[in-house]
């Protein structure tokens, strides 16, 4: 099942509201939902998608989730599966936010290692 963009937005709002207010400190732009998918540029089209990202740029600090990425990767999931993935993605991006504000980068390192291994495995499969 693929919910509508509006339905995912409602679920995101509900899920984000369950996180402590302290997590939102210095998150100027809050949590945004973009309609498009965001394919990972390091992989061939359709192989890997970015579900969400923590952004700190000239506009401030905010979290973006990509509806199209969820739709591409979760077409067979039910409502509970979608909500679980939304929660996991928001929690992951909050961790980036909290680590950055504390001057840490453990999750960045873990994400980089995950991508390194995924690219390595993808390269092995292509041989």
From TrEMBL:
InterPro entries in the record: Zincin_1 (IPR010428), Zincin_1_sf (IPR038555)
Signal peptide as annotated in the record: none
Pfam families (UniProt xref): Zincin_1
UniProt xrefs under Gene3D superfamilies: 3.30.2010.20
Record's protein name: Metallopeptidase family protein
């Amino acid at each position: 099942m693929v919910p509508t963009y509006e339905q995912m937005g409602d679920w995101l709002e509900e899920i984000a509201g369950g996180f402590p207010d302290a997590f939102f400190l210095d998150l100027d732009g809050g949590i945004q939902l973009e309609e498009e998918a965001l394919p990972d540029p390091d992989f061939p089209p359709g192989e890997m998608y970015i579900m969400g990202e923590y952004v700190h740029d000239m506009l401030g600090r905010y979290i973006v989730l990509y509806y199209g990425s969820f739709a591409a990767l979760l077409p067979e999931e039910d409502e509970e599966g979608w909500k679980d993935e939304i929660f996991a993605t928001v929690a992951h991006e909050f961790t980036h936010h909290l680590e950055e504000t504390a001057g840490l980068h453990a999750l960045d390192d873990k994400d980089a290692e995950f991508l390194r291994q995924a690219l390595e495995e993808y390269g092995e499969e292509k041989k």
